[in-house]
Design brief:
Blueprint (H helix, E strand, L loop, with lengths): L2 H4 L1 H23 L6 H25 L8 H12 L16 H8 L3 H12 L2 H6 L3 H20 L4 H14 L1 H13 L5 H8 L17 H12 L2 H22 L8 E5 L5 H13 L3 E3 L25 H6 L10 H16 L2 H5 L1 E10 L17 H21 L8 E6 L7 H12 L3 H15 L2 E8 L6 E5 L9 E2 L2 E3 L9 E4 L2 E16 L2 E11 L2 E6 L6 H11 L9 E7 L2 H9 L8 H4 L4 E6 L18 E2 L14 H4 L4 E5 L5 E8 L4 E6 L2 E2 L9 H6 L2
Parallel strand pairs: 1-2, 1-3, 3-4, 7-15
Antiparallel strand pairs: 5-6, 5-17, 6-10, 8-9, 9-13, 10-11, 11-12, 13-14, 14-16, 17-18, 18-19
Helix pairs in contact: 2-3, 2-8, 3-8, 5-6, 10-16, 13-14, 16-18
């Protein structure tokens, strides 16, 4: 069945409802109304937007889009997103902006109606994907609220209740559909664009309905200039790493049928080659965009395919919108719906092999602004958000056990990285294809020393206040066991780290980094204090008040938990990437995927082996990796809520902020691994060669 036929029956079933709602909106725009003057402009602007979405739906249905010139498509695409693009003629005067909405509509009403508009803006995507049901329910919600204001201005409580029941009542559909997106290859909207479009005709970029910028246009143009041989090689690095992940973990890939491909719009030529390579492994793609409805989103994270954000501040401003409906009853309902959604697709879940991710980097770094008008979770809601994430994770892991799937991640730059984009792209390809065997040998030398340690000390240089003591697990049989994994380029590309799950008890100190980006958010002078391996204090210098800085970390690093444990300690060895990044002054633009290979790093949250601790893993030297648990994960059989945290955030200290990394033996012997940002352990000289070349 073709994608366009999948929703025919569902669309037909709601078409009359949709037409009635649109007619009611049309009447409102063309006639008199009793809506109070304060709110009239808002309803007219949102009603006009809904009529524009009706025109977009007709435009898509007619297939006329295929005949429009590139420049007209580009202009139309910008018009669709003008209301949220930064600027005086965009987001500054948009009801999608909580600041503007509150100024015009008042406190309370402003936040509620701003949320309503942001949800209705999802109709851009629903129209392009021909999902009439979603367009209908949002048009009906608008009409319902319009009627409330026409009868008599409703109380804030009644308005909030209407929105709450809309989200809750339609959770059966919105959450169920999102689950289907994650698993069902029949939802081939993006796959069809990739495989059926003429990728040399860049009009295909606008078929997605996402905001398209010069990043997507220039990236697609650049890839079109590459030889097919180079495209195939890039795709192979990515797909081979995915396949290797299964081999290393001892998971039978032949039992799987689907692979989730996540990418940035503009990368279609490489993705097409990857799809054909995955097909030779017996895998078909499941490709879905980042979630649209608030009920399916988690903060500002974007799992799925994406384009350059029209406005990251807009997304940040609405990160707490679920405060409007997050209560215990809703968490219970969402959990039940999610459980039913997976149960009805348990065979698809069983066949799912895991995500294959192509990240991008190079955008101008985003430093968010806090606004008092933005919705925020109460303390009780913060606890409920933790509970909801935990319950959802349990359900997903029940149907897709982490011990039965794998993944891979690779990253490439966007043109926004600067004038040297093409040169940087070539250098990143080199970094992504560094020789595994060479690194494997050198990393084994480091592991052999670390396996003698009872603890490892990490000390910052200069103004960096890092002073950490990290406790190692005892090895029952050092001849056959190891604490550290020798990480080469399979699931995490590029090559370059050794890592472990340290003991929490006795692990203590301060972790400090002058500047770091975590999940696309910048942190200035972040400082975490640990006792027995858990965060007991935290601070950064992003905002003017201590409260704002602490809230920023709690929301976006700790995901509203009061504490998190250290889940990983690692030493990155990819000095080639580090020197390259400094040569082009792009360290601050690199994704954590590469940055974590460019110095020692700590991860807060779950261990690297979360939910798959029982899988036996071995390093290339034949030793079994035994440090896969810590005192938290060991609770998984007795108190799962205290064992797992559903997050894992890597925080890297760059080499130039490291004074020393020292292995401490049981007899007190101290062996230096890094001193003053350079590897000093015997046999590791090759890791310093990029530094020397970089200074020439």
């Amino acid at each position: 069945m073709e994608y366009c036929d999948l929703f025919q029956e569902e669309n037909d079933s709601v078409r009359e409802r949709y037409e009635l709602a649109i007619e009611r909106i049309r009447m409102f725009l063309s006639g008199d109304t009793s809506v109070e003057e304060t709110y009239l402009e808002y309803f007219k602007r949102v009603a006009t937007f809904l009529m524009e979405m009706d025109a977009l739906k007709t435009y898509v249905d007619s297939k006329e889009m295929k005949d429009v010139s590139f420049e007209k498509m580009k202009s139309y695409n910008k018009a669709l997103y003008q209301d949220i693009i930064p600027g005086e003629d965009g987001y500054d005067v948009s009801y999608a902006n909580p600041v503007y909405a509150v100024a015009k509509l008042g406190e309370g009403y402003g936040q509620l109606l701003s949320f309503l508009y942001t949800e209705i803006r999802g109709n851009i995507i629903y129209a392009v994907e021909q999902r009439l049901f979603d367009m209908t329910i949002h048009a009906e919600l608008f009409v319902e609220i319009l009627c409330m204001f026409e009868d008599e201005t409703p109380s804030e409580k009644d308005l909030k209740k209407t929105i709450y029941y809309f989200v809750s009542d339609y959770a059966d559909q919105t959450i169920d559909y999102r689950t289907r997106e994650l698993l069902d290859p029949k939802l081939s909207f993006a796959t069809d664009i990739i495989m059926k479009s003429d990728l040399s005709d860049l009009r295909y970029l606008f078929y997605y309905g996402e905001y398209i910028t010069d990043n997507e246009i220039r990236l697609a143009s650049f890839l079109n200039q590459m030889s097919q041989e180079d495209i195939e090689a890039m795709a192979y690095t990515y797909t081979h790493g995915y396949e290797e992940g299964f081999r290393v973990a001892g998971i039978d890939l032949s039992k799987k049928k689907t692979v989730n491909i996540r990418y940035a719009i503009g990368q279609e030529r490489m993705v097409r080659a990857a799809i054909l390579q995955f097909e030779k492994m017996g895998l078909v793609p499941v490709i879905y965009r980042a979630p649209i409805a608030r009920v399916n989103r988690r903060s500002t994270m974007k799992p799925g395919y994406t384009a350059t954000s029209a406005n990251k501040q807009y997304e940040y401003d609405h990160r707490g919108d679920h405060a409007l409906f997050l209560d215990k009853a809703f968490v219970e309902r969402k959990t039940a719906v999610l459980k039913n959604a997976y149960e009805s697709r348990k065979q698809l879940a069983k066949e799912y092999a895991g995500p294959a991710v192509i990240e991008v980097f190079g955008e101008v770094p985003f430093e968010p602004k806090n606004k008092k008008e933005n919705l925020k979770l109460s303390e009780q809601q913060q606890q409920l958000s933790v509970l909801s994430a935990s319950e959802s994770s349990k359900i997903v892991n029940e149907y897709i056990p982490q011990s039965e799937y794998s993944f891979t991640i690779i990253a490439y730059p966007l043109p926004e990285i600067g004038e040297q984009f093409e040169e940087i792209f070539a250098r990143i390809v080199e970094v992504n294809t560094l020789d595994n065997e060479t690194y494997k040998g050198v990393q084994q030398i480091i592991i052999d020393e670390l396996d003698k340690a009872v603890c490892v000390k990490v000390k910052g240089a200069g103004s960096n206040k890092t002073d950490m003591t990290v406790m190692m697990h005892e090895l029952a049989n050092p001849e056959k066991e190891t604490n550290f994994e020798n990480c080469t380029a399979d699931v995490n590309i590029p090559v370059g780290e050794v890592f472990t799950s340290p003991k929490l008890t006795g692990t203590h100190g301060v972790l400090n980094v002058s500047e770091v980006y975590l999940n696309d958010l910048k942190y200035n002078n972040i400082m975490l204090t640990f006792e027995d391996g858990k965060i007991v204090d935290y601070m950064c210098d992003n905002f003017s008040t201590e409260e704002e800085n602490r809230t920023y970390i709690k929301e976006n690093v700790m995901y509203n938990r009061d504490t998190l444990p250290i889940g990983e300690f690692a030493i990155g060895t990819n000095t080639t990437a580090y020197v390259m990044a400094n040569a082009y002054d792009i360290v601050y633009k690199l994704p954590i995927l590469i940055v974590e290979k460019m110095g020692p790093h700590f991860a807060v949250g779950d261990t690297c082996y979360s939910h798959s601790e029982e899988v036996r893993l071995y390093n290339p030297d034949g030793k079994e990796i035994v440090a896969k648990d810590n005192e938290c994960s060991l609770l998984r059989d007795t108190d799962e809520d205290k064992a797992y945290f559903n997050c894992h955030t890597d925080i890297t200290i760059p080499y130039d902020e490291i004074a020393a990394i020292t292995s401490v033996h049981a007899d007190g012997t101290e062996v230096s691994i890094i001193k003053n940002g350079r590897f000093v352990l015997k046999g590791c000289d090759m890791l310093n060669e990029p530094f020397e070349r970089g200074q020439q």
